[in-house]
Design brief:
Radius of gyration: 18 Å
Distance between the termini: 28 Å
Structural class: alpha/beta
Shape: globular
Number of strands: 7
Length: about 260
């Protein structure tokens, strides 16, 4: 299927590895020029060079923390007019409700709610003026089924989801869509770290920890960054103009829900 986005320009945040990289590569495969961002300059440039070589698209790499005003300003200045925005950032640390201070919540909100909102506020006016645009926010399956030890993430991502629910309906008349992708466990460094933590705590191998977690997923495996990227690319395509304000789970069926 031709997604109809060749020649478009996209910002993909936190895209040197993991789910962000999967999205960047999938968009590049469709002929989309990229502005890629991540905190680590070396890994970012290596990922950008791989994409240039593999797909022949223009790639601008901007190292910096997208959760800061300075990081966002650098990315937006390098990008100029963009057609596609993929918001992504790492989640806050786990813990218990009694552990978190007001400052902990402010940090979580800055990273996982206010930063993507600021990016949308920056690019939506131009998209609306050109009567075409796509925004995809990478959030979490915890939006549908909160994870107790990830209360900071639950709160921040739920706030972003509420913002998108209203804003997506306001910009849709101008040909601009905003949707959220909700990942479950994927084969990324984050999954490796979670499995390593379980292995250490329970005195088992990482392989055994992974098998246990996979057994809780109806698909009996972790997702791949390639299939996640493909879903993102579709939501950014010409065919997704009638998908507005949705929360799309990519979790192998882990969230047991009718709707």
């Amino acid at each position: 299927m031709d997604l109809g986005i060749s020649g478009k320009k996209a910002i993909v945040c936190a895209s040197s590895k993991g789910l962000g990289l999967g999205c960047a590569r999938a968009l590049a495969a469709e002929g989309v020029d990229l502005v890629m961002n991540a905190r680590g300059a070396e890994a970012l440039e290596a990922a950008a060079e791989d994409i240039r070589r593999d797909f022949g698209v223009r790639v601008t790499a901007v190292a910096g923390d997208i959760t800061t005003e300075e990081g966002r300003a650098a990315v937006l200045e390098a990008a100029g007019e963009v057609d596609i925005l993929v918001n992504n950032a790492g989640g806050p640390p786990p813990g218990m409700w009694s552990d978190w201070s007001r400052e902990d919540f402010i940090k979580a909100l800055d990273a996982n709610m206010l930063a993507p909102i600021a990016m949308m506020q920056a690019v939506l006016p131009g998209m609306m003026a050109r009567h075409w645009g796509r925004v995809v926010n990478i959030t979490s399956q915890s939006v549908k089924a909160p994870i107790p030890v990830l209360g900071l993430s639950n709160a921040a991502r739920a706030g972003l989801t509420g913002f998108v629910a209203g804003t997506s309906r306001q910009v849709a008349p101008e040909g601009v869509t905003i949707n959220n992708l909700l990942p479950g466990i994927h084969a990324t460094d984050r999954a490796d770290a979670l499995d390593a933590g379980v292995a250490k705590a329970e005195g088992i191998s990482i392989e055994e920890a992974r098998k246990r977690r996979q057994a809780t997923i109806p698909a009996r495996r972790y997702g791949t960054i390639e299939e996640f990227g493909a879903a993102c690319a579709f939501l950014c395509s010409q065919w997704a103009g009638y998908i507005v304000g949705q929360n799309v789970l990519l979790d192998g069926g882990a969230v047991n829900s009718t709707m």
